[in-house]
Task: structure prediction
Amino acid sequence: MNHKIGIALAALTLSAAAFAQTKWDLPTAYPASNFHTENITQFANDVDKATGGKLKITVHANAALFKAPEIKRAVQGGQAQMGEILLVNYQNEWQMFGLDGLPFLADSYDAAWKLYQAQKPALEKKLAEQGIMLLYTVAWPPQGIYVKKEIASADDLKGVKWRAYSPATARIAELVGAQPVTVQQAELSQAMATGVVEAYMSSGSTGYDTKTYEYIKNFYDTQAWLPKNGVLVNKKAFDALDKASQDALKKAGADAEKRGWELSKKKNLEYLDLLKKNGMTVHAPSAQLKTDMKKVGDTMLKEYLDKAGAEGQAVVDAYRKM
Ligand code: PCA
Result:
C-alpha cells in the first residue's frame, strides 16, 4: 500500500473509533409523563452530555417495546441493553424481589429507603448472577386503595373486582375476599372503562396517570408500602463500554436515584391534590380498615418468611436494626 494512503486510512480508523456512537434501548412500562419516566429521560440526557454523545440511550415509554413483565428478561438476554422494572412483579421468581411489596413492613419514605439498603446486597448479587447490574432504584409513592364504593372496613371489599399488579397485590385481594385480576398500568384505564376493575391498590401517581378519577371516586390513603422500580443494565453491554462511558453511566445513575426519591416524595402530595381537583375524595382510612389491612400485612409477612427462608429473614432482621 502507498505509504501516504496507509497513514490517512489509519487516521480515519482512529477518528471513527473516537467518535463511534453506541446506541442503547431502555424500555419502561410507564407513560412518558410519569415521574419515573421523566427522571429516566433526564438520566439518558445526562449520559449523552457526559459522554459527548458517545452513548445514546433511547427511552421507550409506556410498554411500547416490551410489556412490564417481559422487561427483565429482555435486559438479561441483551434484547435491550437497559430496562426499568417494577421489582415486586418478579416475586414468584425470587421472594426477595417482593419484599418491598408487603403491606406495612416499610410504609414511609425513610423506612422504604432503609429497606432498600437492607435488600440491596442480595438484589445486586442475584441480578449479577443473571448478567444484570442494578444501576439504581426509585420508590413509588405510598400505596392506597382506589374503590368505587365507600368502605369502612376490609369486609366492604368482599366480592369486588380488584386489579392486581404483582403477586402480593393479588394475595391481598384473596385475603380480603376480593376477586383479583392482574392488569399492568399500561392497560389499566381500559380495564376500568370496561368495568373489569372496581378497585385496586396503588399510588396517587398511577391514579393520576391512568385518569382513575373518571371511573372511581374514592381513594383511601393507607400508605401501606412503597414498591420500587429498578433500572437495570445488561452487564455485557456495560463491559463493552470504554471506562469513561462506564463512569458517566454510573454517575448519572447515582444522580437519578437521589433525584428520583426526592421527586417521588414531592410529587406524591401534588398527585393527591390533582386527584382531588379531578373529583376524587381522598379519605383517611377508618381505624377498622387500618386494623384489617395491618392484619393482612402480618399474614403476608409470615407467608413471606416461610417462603424466603433464612435469606429473607436475614434481610428483614437487618432492616429492623437500621
Ligand atoms: N404504580 C404501579 C406500581 C406501583 C404504583 O404506584 C402500578 O400501579 O402499576
Remarks:
- The pocket of pyroglutamic acid is lined by residues 86, 140, 165, 185, 202-203, 205-206, 227 (CB under 6 Å).
- DSSP finds ten helices and eleven strands in the chain.
- The radius of gyration is 22 Å.
- The CA atoms of residues 155 and 298 lie 17 Å apart.
